[in-house]
Amino acid sequence: MSEFKLNPAAFDVSDFLRNDWQKRPRIIRQAFLNFADPISADELAGVALEPGVDSRVISSKDGQWDLQHGPVEDYSYLPDQGWSLLVQAVNEHFPPAQALIEPFRFLPDWRIDDLMVSYSTPGGGVGAHLDQYDVFIIQGQGRRRWQIGSPGDYTTITPHPDLKQIEGFTAELDEVLEPGDMIYIPAGFPHAGESLSECINYSVGFRAPSQAELLSALADYALDNDALERRFKDSVGNDNSNAKPSGWHLDENALQGFRQLMRDALNDNKLLDEVICQLLSQNPRPPLLVWPETAVTESGVKRYLQRYPSLQRAVGLRMLTTDVAGQRYGLVQGQRFELTDASSQQLFTLLLNTHLQIATDNLLELNLSSAALQLLTQFINEGFWFVETEEQA
Ligand code: SIN
Ligand code: CO
């Protein structure tokens, strides 16, 4: 797998974090020296056909936009120009592309969403739009013109129900990117990219949940776990004011009662932390879990480790660690596991940092405690990690 390293002469991480990150767009010329695409256009089209992969073809001709959801088997209906194939989470489905995420680990891993890769024909693009995500876009093969404006109150248009664009913006940056160049666009900055030749672009997107998403996650969590069950109580009759019931009129007093009830729901830090960890440890694109045919036991797992060279990680699995009252926990796809001893913590760290397959020798070297072995057994039974047997290979 080839490595990608940011060119320190072009990109100073601390300077970037201090001056640009989430503040202003930036063009970084030759962010990657001698950039070599980790995927070809044909390979990208192949990834787009795989199960669980989210892809779109966006085309425009004479101002008419069209969008087709993948998997797209046949591109012959498209002209030679004016369209792009966009494929989400290519890092999860095409292992060599994961290497392009690595240089961005100067930001917390849990902020990273995915690597979206696009292939465009000349004139291809998705039109002027805003993203809710901070994004680094790396220019692979070809050349692309990028125009970026300032945040503002733009009118949204939807030339196709699944294609959100904005009406014109004034470009404050207007530059052509060459292979190895990179552009950083903070969330909310209007932009448009138009290919000047056949080209490939890599977008490293950073997840930033909105208040609405967080509150929706809180509500889901509370409903699933019988939390936040306090209900509205009338103040009528309690305030000695002899106030009459106010018919269908919702008065200030009642509104205040509802507002307070909602605010009180946000006072429990323990609950909020559980919701945050659950949300951030889940991939918004469901992972492709692979369950064993029959549940494995701990001694069965020991035999696996002896017999097979590697364990595979389910595609798209998300994990993180957190501390609660001094105790370390590991979260996998929203499920929380207590990491009770040093061995379990070592195991979790190793699994966390291994994106694809893990050599069983590395696991054996850890000399797993019985708690750690139990944990690994649970992970295998949950379909998080699996052995690729001859039948599956
Ligand atoms: C792309 O077409 O590669 C990127 C689209 C975007 O601007 O988000
Ligand atoms: Co964009």
Automatic annotation (TrEMBL):
It comes from the Bacteria. InterPro entries: JmjC_dom, NO66-like. Keywords: Iron, Metal-binding, Ribonucleoprotein, Ribosomal protein. SMART domains: JmjC. GO terms for molecular function: 2-oxoglutarate-dependent dioxygenase activity; metal ion binding. SUPFAM superfamilies: Clavaminate synthase-like. Pfam families: JmjC_2 (PF08007). Residues 96-223 form the JmjC domain. The keyword Iron applies. Its cofactor is Fe(2+). One of its GO terms (cellular component) is ribosome. This is 50S ribosomal protein L16 arginine hydroxylase.
